[in-house]
Amino acid sequence: MNPMREVFVDKVVVHMGVGESGDKLTKAVDIMKKITGNNPVKSVAKKTNPAFGIRKGAPISCKVTLRGKTAGDFLDTALAIVERRVSTSQFDESGNFSFGIEEHTDFPGMSYDPQIGIYGMDINVILARRGVRIARRNIERHRLPKKQMVQPEDAIAFLKSRYMAEVA
Fold it and tell me: What CATH number did the domain enclosing 63 receive?
């Protein structure tokens, strides 16, 4: 097979939305740090929503971006938690996919603590092929050819072969 046609995990973004700042967000940041091994970045609210007590610009969630080997290892662990099942509706037209984990206690080494509670998270997986840099570089940027873009069928085949996942 042509090495330029191989699909790989470009990055994995793990997001935990708690809806408010303060102690709850601090606990979520600590949990995220333990699970991923990286320092999370806090995300702020884009709009004010008085019904939920959210102000524009207030930190309400945290996220971590994983790349390389750590992204692949984390994805393997996360897929094991969801029993290696992903739905076709979770794929977008660019071959990326997302899924959720309801409880952080499902990860190895994590246990339930009544002081902390239970937090869920979203996992977004971005897939790419070699040569994607031409669309991202600053000098002489070009559009990525259609045949070099990852299609949903390619992503499903990659997921089945590399992670032994079941796509229904």
Answer: 3.30.1440.10
